[in-house]
Each structure stands twice: as structure tokens, then as C-alpha cells.
Amino acid sequence: MLKKKLITLLTVFAILAVSVCGSFLTLPKVSAANLIYDDFESGLNGWGPRGPETVELTTEEAYSGKSSLKVSDRTETWNGPMVDISDVLSLGESYKLSVYLKYVGNSYSNEQRFSLQLQYNDGVGDVYQNIKTATVYKGAWTLLEGELAVPPHAQDVKIYVETEYKTSPNPQDLMDFYIDDFKATPVNMPEIEKDIPSLKDVFAGYFKVGGATTVSELAPKPARDLILKHYNSLTFGNELKPDSVLDYDATIAYMEENGGDEVNPQITLRAARPLLEFAKENKIPVRGHTLVWHSQTPDWFFRENYSKNENDPWASKEVMLQRLENYIKNVMEALETEYPTVEFYAWDVVNEAVDPNTSTGMRNPGSNNRTPGNSLWMQTVGRDFIVKSFEYARKYAPSGCKLFYNDYNEYEDRKCDFIIEILTELKEKGLVDGMGMQSHWVMDYPSISMFEKSIKRYAALGLEIQLTELDIKNPDNNPSALERQATRYQQLVTKLIDLKKEGANITALVFWGVTDSTSWLGGYPLLFDGQYKAKPAFYSIVNNVPQLPTPTPVKVKYGDVNEDGVVSSTDFTYLKRYVLKILSDFPTPNGKIAADVNGDGNINSTDVTIMKRYLLKVIDVFPVENK
Questions:
Q1: Burial, 260: exposed, middle or buried (Cβ in 10 Å; 0-12, 13-18, 19+)?
Q2: Among 200, 204, 112, which Cα is nearest to 163's?
Q3: How far, in Å, are 121, 287, 421 from residue 355 at the CA level?
């Protein structure tokens, strides 16, 4: 591959001029300041086939100049041209990537979907990310263009083009096609606003304020900066959901190596690793999302012998309950082993189990991957899966981690009735700590009174309340629409604070996404726009937040980490297990204060030694009491 360093801005501008205006002259592949431009006038420039197909230079068609790249002899939709750009991209930086495509041929229809894709290795295996999928029209050059940030941990970074994936492609899906003028242009990312209030500081004393993010959303530097400034809670958008953590190949290998044991599904944290590393490095508490869900769970998990054959039978209830327990156990143990310092302060144990449109209030049995909304948990286990999920989560979750049921439209009366029924049973068994109210709102629904009524009903059960996935759908960004959205956010948060003051145990407010441009909803639903700038909605909720009275200083008995009134060997055991990271927290709210018996602000082996000396009566008082 011919790569030349451009050492002057003049040359960079010349390349950009060529890319915009057409090819008055032809240039080989060039790179500078991590800009890449391939016009295929002097060679393949490192491009080649992904499989058995043919990738070659041709003068049959060209968007600019005389040549382009032709792809032929394809047998699968994923066959297409690919290039390795690992050595010219700056990882963690944002790029605009684009390529022109064309196809011709009388046997083809006038439209075909194509995709521009990213592939990289995350240290465990290959990861694939769509950059842009669009319709290409026969006989016309079409631009596929998208923006992304390559994750900082990526290796073997490749770009490729394919026709849209199909399991059973027809001859048109395997068509010949041409590409030309591929570009990867660095995007100047904006700085976040550092001089505005921090959300986590504004609401300190009321509740945690969190954000949800995926690995791709987190890749740009301003996204990381924004999260660090505003949030003290992090939710992973997809990376801890069942289809991300269940490892099919490892599961099959385990079954074959262990005499056909089909009840111990294996898991991997590979998808979540970048987010876990970010949480570890920045000491951000994490809401685990989500353990058990009818959606984003592969069908093979529910079949006998983990079969991928659609005609094979579902596993029995007995087998599925064993799989459920081992799955939850394996997730919790992997997190504790690989990321012992990451604090999981809450987990969504069961997500969206209720369907108020059925007579039972539960989802219909069946595969969600065949009929959206159906539940294979209801198919294989029945309603018992909810209680069992919480039993296993309580058994294996870290000490101090709160367990939540999580659902949407949770403010509607009929759905709330069914949720209350579930929560009441779980509460009576000591299995649930909180209700996760997703809070995906639109501009006119729900009403504030509906919201207030539902929170009071959940709070009456003695549960924590967390708004777990807040956004307010808004398709318009004109000033009046943004002000209307701001009023909506302000009404919601004001009511939340009022309810908190009235005694509702509201402990977290989590926004679902980083900026409008990456929101799953599209449009403009969040507090920050696509340039990471605060919107009117942000200021509507940070202005005029009532200050809480200064709390009375907590009085603790040092050494008494379980607050039973005495310092004993039980307290010593708790302290030692905490320092050894066997426990992630102490059993009482003031345990950490009581455990710092030398008053240096840290809880470590020094405190263990001092506690031991105190219990052996070598010392009469703790050092902190002499300060």
C-alpha cells in the first residue's frame, strides 16, 4: 500500500480539493494527520477481498479519474472489498468515512441496499460495527457516508463494503459492483462546556445522576469528558445484556468437554470490557443492565443442547432453571474476578416481564426473535422465572448491591397493577430492593399526575425508586420545541424532588444516552445536543434546585462496622473481608466511616492490624479517636 506523509497544510487542502471538485489530476493513496484518500488511480492501495471474491482495478466505471475498484464473483453478501487502516487511524478520535458505490446490469432491479462497515479486534475476537447502510440506485454513483470514533482499545482496524446482509441471498444480493474515492477524514470534535454546573453536584443529597452509554457512544473524547463531569452512575446500553455476555462457542465446548452438561452456559465480558475499564479507571458506580429479559437473548439458550436448529425442542423447565442459576452465577463471578474494584450498586434483574394486554399480565410464550414481544422464559419456565431470577441474583450478587425490577410504561394503571403484584411477592420473600421506572416519555404523555401516582404506589411497598432510562422524545429542534421540552423536563424533576422530600426513597436519575445524535430515539430527546452542548432542558432542571439543609454530622462508634453497639470479632471479620475484596461494602450505612479506625481516609490492611490490636487489648482506643 502506498502511503505518503503529507507535511504541509497546502498538500492536505489539495487533496480535499480533489475529493470535492473531482480529479483534475490523479493522486495515489495518501495519509496525513490521519486523513486517508483512495481514488484507485495508481493501484489497489491495500484493498482486497474478504473471501473468495475478486477485487481488481477497472476502467469500466469511475466516479472520478479513470479507474475504480470492481468486485465480482461474490457468493455471500459479506463478500466485498476491505482495507486495513490500523496504522493510519488515531484510535479514540472521530472520523467521517465515505465511499462512492455503483452497480449496473439489466438483470438487476433499480435499488439495492449496501453497507459501509467497520471491523476491529477487541483483544478477544472480531467486532463489527455498521457505519452506514443506504439504498444505491442502479446506474448512478451513490455516496455512503457516516461518522464514528474507533474505540481506543481496537486492533486490526478494517473498513469494508458489502450488500446488506441476508441469510438467503438471491442473485441480485450477490451482484458485481464498483467503489471509488474512499475517504476517512478526521472530525474536529467539540470541547464540552466546563463552566456549567455539574448534574451530579446539583443533585447531590437527592439522588445519583447517571448516564447510559454504549462502547461506540463512549469512544469520542468529549463523550468521556461529559460523563466524567456530570454523572456518578453509569449504565451500559447493550454490553451486559444476555446476547452480549452469553458465549455460544464456549458454552458448546464446555458441554462437550463435560459429558454433555447442558446446564452451565458460559459467558464473556468482551463486549463490556471497554466500559468496565472506563468505570474502573474513573471509579464510577455501575447499574447492571440487565440479567433476565425476553429480548436480546438468543433462542439457542432455550433449546435442548443449545441447538441453533429452529426445529429442535425447547429445554425443560428443570434444565432452564439450572441454566438460569448458572448464567447469573457466572456473570457475577466473572465481574468479581476480573473487575473487583468496579462497584455494581444496582442490577436490573428482570426487565419488561409484564404485558398488560394479556389476561395474565405476562408476556405470551414463544420466541421474541420470531414474534416480537413473546417470551421464551414464559415458554420454558412460566411465571416462576421472575422469583427464581431474583433468588439467584440475591445469592450471587455482591454484598450491598440492590436488586431491581425494571419496566416501561410503568406509570399506566393497568400495567402498574401487574407490576405491583410481582413486586409484592418479591418483597415478601426479601428478594427485591427497588423499582426501575424506565421513564421513556413523549412531550404530552404521561401526565405529571400519572407519574406521581405510580411513584407513590411503588414507594408504598418500601422500595427504592430509580428512574433508569429517562428521555423525552422530541422530533423538532426549533427554539419553541426545545423550550417546551425544557418545561417538560423541569416539571418532571421538580415533581421528583417534591416526592423525595415527602419521603419517597428515590435514589437515582439516569438519562438514556449521551447526546441527541447518539440517542436510540433519534430526534432531540436528551439534555445535550450533538455538539455536546447543554440544551434548554439542561438549564431547566439545574436552575432553582432547592438546597437541602446541612446534614447533622454522623456519630459513629469506630470499629463497630455492623453498628450493633459493640466492637467485636464480627466487626474484625467484616473489615478483613472488605480489605480482601471478598465484600464490596459493609452491612450498614456508616460502616465505612467506622472501619477507618486510623482516620487516614483509607480502609486497608493498616486498619485491620489496628482493629486486631484493639480486640487483643494491646491498645485501648483507636488512633482516630485521638485526632
A1: exposed
A2: 112
A3: 39, 24, 13
Largest CA distance in the chain: 94
Name the strand (E) or helix (H) holding 483: helix 479-501
What's the grid cell of residue 542?
Answer: 439545574
Burial per residue of 156-169, b for 16 or more beta-carbon CB atoms within 10 angstroms, e otherwise: ebbbbbbbeeeeeb
> Taking CA 218 as the corner, what is the angle to CA 217 and CA 223, rounded to the nearest 5 degrees?
95
**What does the pLDDT average to over 59-78?**
96
Burial (0-12, 13-18, 19+ Cβ within 10 Å), 72: middle
Q: Are β-strands 142-149 and 68-72 bridged in parallel, bridged antiparallel, or unpaired? A: unpaired
State the pTM of this model: 0.74
Binning the chain into helix, strand and coil, the percentages to the nearest 5 are 30, 25, 45
Residue 103 near residue 178, CB atoms below 8 Å? yes
**Residue 169 preceded by cis peptide, ω within 30:** no
Q: Where are the alpha helices (DSSP H) in 242-344?
A: 242-245, 248-257, 273-282, 317-338
Gap between the Cα atoms of 186 and 170, Å rounded:
37
Q: Which of 521, 441, 528, 518 is nearest to 213 (CA)?
A: 518
Report, as an integer, the average pLDDT of 313-327: 98
Question: What domains can be seen in the chain, in order of their start residue?
Answer: 9-186 (2.60.120.260), 200-542 (3.20.20.80), 569-626 (1.10.1330.10)
Q: Is 277 a catalytic residue?
A: no
Q: What distance in Å separates the CA atoms of residue 288 and residue 291, rounded to the nearest whole number? A: 8
Among candidate residues 217, 391, 452, 469, the one labeled active-site is 469
* pLDDT tens string 499-515: 999 999 999 999 999 99
Pick the range with the lowest mean pLDDT from 118-132, 217-231, 370-384, 610-624: 118-132
Active-site residue, from 352, 391, 410, 452: 352
DSSP 313-329: PBPPHHHHHHHHHHHHH
| Active-site annotation holds for 56 | no
User: Could you tell me the pLDDT band of residue 11, with boundaries at 50, 70 and 90?
Assistant: very low
CA distance 509 to 27: 53
pLDDT digits (tens, 9 = 90+) for 521-577: 999 999 999 999 999 999 999 998 887 766 566 678 899 998 888 898 888 988 998
Cell numbers for 281, please give them. Answer: 479507571
Radius of gyration for the alpha carbons in the chain, expressed in angstroms and rounded: 28
Residues 243, 271: Cα–Cα separation, whole Å: 10
The full DSSP string for 402-442 is EEEEEESSTTSHHHHHHHHHHHHHHHHTT---EEEE--EEB
Q: Is the Cβ–Cβ distance between 366 and 373 less than 8 Å?
A: no
| 164 DSSP 8-state letter | P
